[in-house]
Amino acid sequence: MQLTRTLTAAFAVVALALAGCSGGGQANEAGSSQLVLGNNGDLLTWDPAEMKEGAVIHYAEAVYDPLLRKTPESKIEGNLATSYEYNADLTELTLKLRDGVTFSDGAAFDADVVKVNLEARKKGAGSASEGARAIERVEVVDKATARLHLSEPSPGLLAALATYTGYMVSPTALSAGNIASNPVGSGPYTYDAGASEKGVKYTFKARDGYWNREAFPFENVVIRPYEEFTARYNALATGQIQFMYGTSDMVPKAKTDGLTVKTVPGEWQGIILQDRAGKASAALGDVRVRQAINHALDRKAILDTHYGGFGQVSTQTFNPSSEAWVPELNARYPYDPAKARELLASAGYGSGFKIKISYSEGFMSPLVPIVTQYLGDVGITVEQVPVNGFANGGLETLKGQPAFMLSFSTNIPAWTDVLNKLTPTSLWNNFKYTDETVTRLLKEIPAAQGDKQAALYKELNTHLVEQAWFAPIVTQENVYLFKSDIDVTMQQAQLMPSLRFFAPAK
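C-alpha cells predicted for ABC transporter substrate-binding protein (506 residues):
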C-alpha cells in the first residue's frame, strides 16, 4: 500500500494552502453584536419541506422556530409547543402550544397553524417528509392544543418536530406559495434580502418582540457559504467568519493560529452500497461482494492517517450513544485482503470487476483515492464520479448510482437514521431496497419501548452489518473551529450546533 505517501502529499498541499492565509479580501464583519458563520454550502430553498438534513439547519433556525427543541445532549424539550404527551399505544401525540407567539408578518401562531404546516411538510421531498410520514392527520383540539394522529408509532417523531418537520412557517406565506424564496417565520431573526447576496452571504436581523430573545444574544447573524474547506479556513483565519465545521488535519494549524478547537462524536464516513439488488451493478447484488468491500478497507490505518485519530473505527452507521450501537460489531470486518479476494472469487468475481462510486466533491475528495486504492488492491476497479454537494443539487445525481460516498449524520434516537437510510422511501435508499428482516424490524421497533426496543434496534444493526448494506470506515469526531470572541456549546447528534448554543465569549 502507498497510503502513507498519498496522505503525506495531500497534507503538504493543505498545509501550503493554509500557510498562505493572510489579511485582505472582504472586510471583517464579526463583532460582539454580530455572529458570522461559515457554512458548508449554499441554500437551495427556504421551504423547510424541501430542505435536506445537514448544515442548512443554520439558515432554517435563523428564521423558523421548531415546535420542540434539542438540548446539547439531544434530549427533547418544549419550544413552540410547551409540552407534549403520547397516549398509551403511542399513536396520538398531544401538543400544548405557547401563547402569544406571532410570525414576522404579524400572523398569530396557534393549532390551526400547526395543522397547515405539518400537512405541508408531508408533501415535501426533503428530510421533513420522512419525519412527518407517520402523521395521518392533525386535529385542532382548540387554539392552544394540537393532536397528531399517527398511522403507527414513530420513535423519531419528537426529534423531527425539533428540526425540519417542526419548523413553523407563517400561514399567510404558505398560502402565497412563495416560501421557497421568501422565508417568513416566528424565529429569532428575519432575513434581510437587501443586505444579502445569493451564494455569498445571507444576513439576518434580530426580530423585535421575539419570545426567547435571551437565547439568541446576537443582534445580527451572517451566514457565508463555502464549498471548499481551504477557502473556509482562509475566511476564518482572516476574520471574515467566526465559526466553521473543520477537518482533523486543520487542528494543528488552527491551534497555532489561536483558534478554539472543539470536537463531538458525530458523522460516519464510508460507502453506501445502495444497489443491493444488483440493478445497476450486478456484483453488488451478492452479499459476498459487499462483505469483500468491507474486508478490503484498512480502517485503523485510515483513521490514524487520514483522520489524524479523530474518531473510531466503525462498521456501523448509528450513533455510538444510540440504543442501536453494538460495540462488538466494529470487529466484524478486520482488514483482510486475502479474505476479500476469496469472497470475490466465491461470488464469481475472481478476476475483479468495475464499479462506479459517486462522491460529494470537495468534502470527500481526499478520501476517495484512498478507498479507490484499497479496493483496487483486491481487484475492484473504481470509476470515480464526482457530484456537487447534496445541499447544492448533488442528491439528484445519486439516484441511479450503485454506490456513493458522503459524510452521513448519526442521530439520537436511532429511528432518525432508519428514516434517513433504511426505508424504501428514504433519501439515501434510492433503489428502494429492503429485505424481510428489515421490513419486520421496522414494524416491530416503533411498537416496542424500553429494553425491548433497544434489543430490536441492536438486532437491526447487526443484520445490516452482516448483510453489508454499507461499508463504513469511521465514526469521526466532528471538528469545529472558531474565534476566541465567541463561545459554542457542543451538541450531540447534530451536524451543526443549534444557533441557541452560540454566544459572545465572556
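The two ends are 49 Å apart (CA to CA).
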